[in-house]
Amino acid sequence: MSATIVVGTQWGDEGKGKVIDVLSEGADVVVRYQGGNNAGHTIVVGAERFALTLIPSGVLYPNVTPVIGNGCVVDPAVLLGEMATLSERGIDPSRLRLSGNAHLIMPYHRKLDAVMERFLGRQQIGTTKRGIGPAYTDKYSRQGIRVQDLFDPKIFRSKLEVALKEKNKILTKIYNQMPMDLDPICDEYLEYADRLHEHVTDTSLLVWEAIRDGETVLFEGAQATLLDIDHGTYPFVTSSNPTAGGVGPGVGIGPTAIDRVVGVAKAYISRVGSGPFPTELDNPIGEKMVEIGGEFGTVTGRRRRCGWLDGVALRYAVRINGLTEIALTKLDVLSHFETLRVATAYDSLDHRHTEFPRQQRVLYNCHPVYDDLPGWNTDISGVTDYRDLPKQAQQYVEYVEELAGVPVTMVSVGPSRAATLVRG
Ligand code: IMP
Fold this sequence. Notes:
alpha/beta, 10-stranded mixed sheet, 4-stranded mixed sheet, globular, binds inosinic acid
């Protein structure tokens, strides 16, 4: 029996989908607890590539019940679209369970996301424009519409009416946009209701019962630690709590249910969108990481900014999430570099910082202090046993382990399920 949380330790795109996919093999339930279709998980099974944004990665295993918890925001058209795509490719999505308390992403959320970003100009966040921030804003201002509202057409219409009245004022008077019509939105969403109905259940109870009955439950974090609304590089963050603590409110279970917290760290770092990034390499080395690592977004196709592994941020992720272990991904990408660097501290504003700075001013002025490690200059993508990795590659993994203070239990050297080295 185990309840395991899998979280990103950086700014997302660490390869969580693959780690969750590997861990899903022995799992019964895989649960998303925050975010929406801003997440992009690419999973490679044999010759097939699956890109999921909302449905938990575990759906690819027939033994798994995939769950979308109450802490998520759900765009029903995207959800139904992903289910249809999976069906076409021979994956049965009928086991999917969806919380009636999850909030709906509405067309005006997507519109507002786009126009608010434009309005911010040079200060823009670089969001995925999927309506995530505006949907969570409505949730916390208690104006949100939830999945369960879809099943009472009168209530749904009246909530939509109230919401649209306000949103149309904002759209027309502040952002100079056309107002949105009630009827087409209402008809569109009520049509989704019929198709979603059989999937909606009390997911908090479902997960609690699974844990009580000794089943294996995985909590799949989307985005990552440094994109957390409370603990990330605010305001350049997403609007939810991807950190491990988000599981409690995002699913409705207590902290004592959790046994294991796995932090996924890419062997280097990337970031999409705006915001501080101390180890960013805006030079040919960073460019090489983008090319070799295929660092383009799953959701938006945007080029990711790349840089050396940041040990300060990694230790911060260990602390904030209470990590019990680390899964190190994309180690094969580093095969192409002569010397590898890892940041161990930052120099900023006349001080040396060994802890991740909480002050934006400090973060923006950071100059990383690096340790240099030898590269291995050999292709490792075909290695299937950790002990067969070149000595320098093992040294790199052990260095990361020492720096983080928790064991690296899994090393990924390629996109396929097979390219995963589990360390005892
Ligand atoms: P939002 O989540 O669409 O509001 O975007 C807020 C910030 O989080 C932007 O910088 C996005 O690029 C980033 N972001 C959101 N989801 C992901 C993800 O799955 N991977 C990496 N970055 C993400």
